[in-house]
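User: Predict the complex.
Assistant: Input components as received:
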Amino acid sequence: MVANSPQHSITPGTPPFQSSTPVPILEVEALSKSYRQANGELTNAIGNITCRVDSGEFVSFVGPSGCGKTTLLMSIAGLLAPTSGRVMVNGRAVASPPENLVLLFQEYNKSLFAWRSVLGNVGFGLEARRQSSKDTRKKALALLDLVGLSGFENHYPWELSGGMQQRVAIARALAYEPEILLMDEPFGSLDALTRLELEDVLLNIWSELKTTILFITHDIEEAIYLSDRIWVLSRRPSAIIDEIQIAFPRPRHQVATRAEARFMEIRNAIYQQIRN
Amino acid sequence: MDGVKRFNWAGWLALGFLLCLWELGARATPRLQPYVPAISQVLAAFGPLLREGTILKHLAITLGRFLEGYLLAAGLGVVLGVVLGYFRTVHSFVETLIEFLRPMPSVAIIPVAILALGIGDAMIIAVTVYATLWPILINAIDGVRRIEKILIDTGRTFGLPRRRILWRIILPAASPYIVTGLRIGLSIALILVTTAEMIAGSKGLGFFILDEERSMNSAAMYGGIVVVAALGYFLNRLFLALEFRAMRWRRGMLVRESF
């Protein structure tokens, strides 16, 4: 894979196959980010984060509120330049937003296009890929069906509830068919029932489309329920304080999975780590 | 907004009532009739002007100047406004200049324009462009600056190059402001065309109104005023109808906001 890539220069003396593991789809190397606030104070948002995500994984960052999670995701998405360190997607350093990666913003209601209908918003993800308009309509309708919004295609975003708006944002991101989907507390401002429902919608889509998902949340149980792996983040400047493998079988079940004794053990362990 | 479709009976009734009052009042006070003729007298003086085509000729000239000035200002204002709204550094260079020039009553520029351009179409159109530019420019700048950064970032994360972000995100997101500026500019352009015609014109409705006043022909003067008023009214209706079509997505939102 590496050897076939024309962009990859091979240093003399090093064998083309350096290791048996393939290049991870996403690598974060010693990333740190500090910025000046409006009052001139220097804020260290991200201390030093190194991690890697393999293709098809569902990984989550969990941490306390205001621990720089959004800054971290913006940096990974190429929307903010890191102060030091780098992000690699498919083995190539990220300088601008990578083509095969989409960030789903926390403020989904502000990220939707008010001047486009629901169908138009979802179609935007396809237009960005320069698909023909006939395909666009068909695919957008299929995705709206997938997120449970059939029949709302001609509504405008402001006519929908928060949960429905978030579904539109998810469908728009999926329409783009990214290899990597970054999600910034996507269900944070939804009511509890909608949240559980959308978690399952997301897991179904993920297992169907094989997208790699990097998810951020401050809801520990949500992270455990969804993920293959969890990284626990400290307070600012944020650093990874633990990595936890989540081995519950899939498909998971909102009642059965959450009722397992191991689920509570993990939840309590993470809770202790974040509190200290 | 929904007034575009529905006929406002009450409004027209009130207008008709006022016109009746005018007619009766003017008839009851013959002493004032040289200054305020009755509506019937205005219409009587208006008939021949319409038949001879005099008033239509002036109307066509005013409309032509208006369109030229307004469309130039609209194009210039929107393009400049989007550029200044987007590039903050460029904006900071011209911001103070704008803040000085904008509050100045635009008619004060007319003498300068006469000195520079003489008396004629060029002067009238230049003054109209100058005055009409401000509301369009300011609103376009504002509209672009108020765009949520997250909308631009959404375009970026979907891999859109700058040019497509401009067309697909910045312009539609700023369009409510741009349209507001264009609507305000509409009435300002008509004011400036008429005023400039009064001061330094030999044709056009502004000239016609002042000329009839100087000839002590007040019935025809009021006729000219009515024509200018009607022109303004129809231009505004036309604008609202176009806005109603173009800004379909805002319709329901505005109704909801007005509750």
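Chain A touches chain B at residues 74, 77-79, 96-97, 99, 101-103, 105, 107, 110-111, 113-117, 124-125, 127-128, 156, 158-159, 176 (CB under 8 Å).
Let me know if you want any component modeled separately.
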